[in-house]
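Sequence in, structure out.
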Amino acid sequence: MPPPVEAADPESPAWPLSGGDDVRDELWEAYADPSRGYHDTTHLGEVVARVEELAAAGVEFDRTAVLLAAWFHDSIYDGERDAEERSAAWAEDALPGLTDEATVSEVVRLIRLTETHRPGADDPNGWALSDADLAILAAPRERYDAYVADVRAEYAHLDDETFTAGRRAVLTDLLAKPRLFHTDYAFAHWEERARANASAELARLTQESVD
């Protein structure tokens, strides 16, 4: 099995613009909200680190657009179904003047894509962002277990039966994909471990629902 995804430094994720420090700081503050569980500054740092890992490995994509989308993709996260759309709206409002119009449009599109993690057959930017966002599935067991616990904390308002049913549906949907990861690098390095982690979690949840 390939080695697990390495831990990232969540304190210094790359910001791809020469300006916009105020926007960056507002985003960081949003991710640092103490009410968040998994979708916090650690998650932001990990996703940005995975984008940079893909770029360093020679995967071709628009680094600026994908990094900006990584910064904005969970900028609003409150458990409601339209969080991605509201995050996209924040980017659409904040980025004009900091980068060109085409990049703004692409960032907004990429953020919306994270709702399904199903980029098209010819979408290198979508592949990169989706792979970076799902790379947590290939984490070492200790980090994966912490991720699972943090996701549960974000849905503390749900009873165990409701949460388990929803989580099982998410995992089943992910595992039904022909590939969890779309870039060749991520598929080669992360796919096997990610499927093992997700399958083991699904099996545990299924057993718990039977007991």
